[in-house]
Amino acid sequence: MKHPFATTLLRWYATHGRDLPWRHTADPYAIWLSEVILQQTRIEQGRDYWRRMMERFPNVASLAAASEDEVLRLWQGLGYYSRARNLHAAARQIVEMGEFPHTIAGIKQLKGVGDYTAAAIGSIAFNLPAAVVDGNVYRVLSRHFGIHTPINSTEGKKEFALLAQELLPGHQAAAYNQAIMDFGALQCTPKAPNCPDCPLADTCRALHAHEVDILPVKLKKLAIRTRRMQYVYVRVNGEIAIRRRPAGDIWQGLWEPLLFEDDQLPPMEGRLTLLRKGVKHVLTHRILYADFYLLEADTRPTLPSDFVWIPEGELDRYALPRLVEMLVKEVKCREK
Q1: How do the residues of the chain divide into helix, strand and coil, expressed in percent and rounded to 5?
Q2: What are 282-302's pLDDT values in tens digits?
Q3: How far apart are CA 286 and CA 249, in angstroms?
Q4: CA-CA distance, 260 to 267, in Å (whole number)?
Q5: How far does Cα 46 stand from its chain's mean position?
Q6: What angle do CA 203, 14, 128 make, to 5 degrees?
Q7: How many helices (H) and strands (E) does the chain have?
Q8: Residue 22 dihedral angles phi and psi, to the nearest 5°
Q9: 215-to-165, 189, 191, 195, 314 alpha-carbon distances in Å
Q10: At residue 229, what are phi and psi to the nearest 5 degrees?
């Protein structure tokens, strides 16, 4: 029997649900791509990236056949680049399998796919009875049912997962999962939710207990680490020096110019120009402060062995972190 909560959400969704391009297909590849993009991205930005990715890689075979550099280049600007690398690796897994997996267990075997993404793909593409639990779902459930268990605790994750599954109408899994996500994004928002016009207002415990602003409860976040960086854009006779960032740190696999972190710049032959100082760039659990320099020289300086020299005009072919894009923009502005 369908829970009244689910009935109300589905009725709301029929009128207020968002019209998104990936909701006009049952193609699991297209749905999977949208879910990966939207893991850490607003829909307004993610929609354009999804369209570009679908145009360049219309099916999983074309994505699997691409180089990692090409995938990262298309992903540039979205951040959290491990998503792109996992997407690419999973595409090759699917090609090896011969088809997109159509069970929750099978979908979870794909690289980078966790409980939420597997439930979203499985329910939307195959209508599997698996409830999604993301930030929107935590917020809606904690407020409506008055749950104070921290959502990022082990106990909380189990409690909310069980409740979400109990509420799921199995035969309408796709519509319900999309309904509760849209409801959290549009109606039961993190700040200033539209409680006066909420169809669940009569049964919302947080509203009646004046606890809307304190739910959901979340344990304190990890400490923020500050890093200080000096980037030097080295130009010699129309060529520039870049290297691919190694594994084990931010921006793995992306390209960057010469970097000095925390230390003072060493003496360097050529004309060194400070382009911009103290550029602030915020990442998850990190705040970066960067100084941008341009070094113009007549002969190539001695650099670590992982650097390569490329024609400056070919830099657009390489995937760059957002901070390095900002440096390149400063260099171009100086040339005008």
Answers
A1: 50, 15, 35
A2: 997 899 999 999 999 999 999
A3: 12
A4: 12
A5: 9
A6: 90
A7: 13, 7
A8: -75, -5
A9: 20, 11, 11, 14, 50
A10: -130, 145
Q: Alpha helix locations (H) across the chain?
A: 4-16, 28-37, 43-56, 60-65, 68-75, 82-97, 104-108, 115-126, 135-145, 154-167, 173-186, 205-208, 322-335
At residue 295, the 3 state secondary structure works out as: strand
User: Residue 53 CB: number of other CB atoms within 10 A?
Assistant: 22
Residue length of the chain: 336
Question: Is position 35 annotated as part of the catalytic site?
Answer: yes
Q: Which two tokens stand for residue 155?
A: 């106990």
Q: And the tokens for 272? A: 């060194």
What letter represents residue 120's amino acid? A
Count Cβ atoms within 10 A of the Cβ of residue 274 and give its class: 0-12 exposed, 13-18 middle, 19 or more buried.
exposed
- What is each CA distance from 281 to 256, 294, 319, 323, in whole angstroms? 15, 19, 18, 7
Which residue type sits at 63? L
| Among 35, 159, 330, 335, the one annotated catalytic | 35
- For 249-264, what is each residue's pLDDT tens digit? 999 999 999 999 977 8
**Neighbouring C-beta atoms of residue 254, cutoff 10 Å:** 22
Of 229, 237, 227, 233, which Cα lies nearest the Cα of 307?
Answer: 233
Q: Find out whether 240 and 318 touch, Cβ atoms under 8 Å.
A: no
Q: What is the largest CA-CA distance in the chain?
A: 77
Report yes or no on whether pTM surpasses 0.85.
no
Tokens of 136: 């929107």
In the numeric block, which tokens belong to residue 205?
């415990």
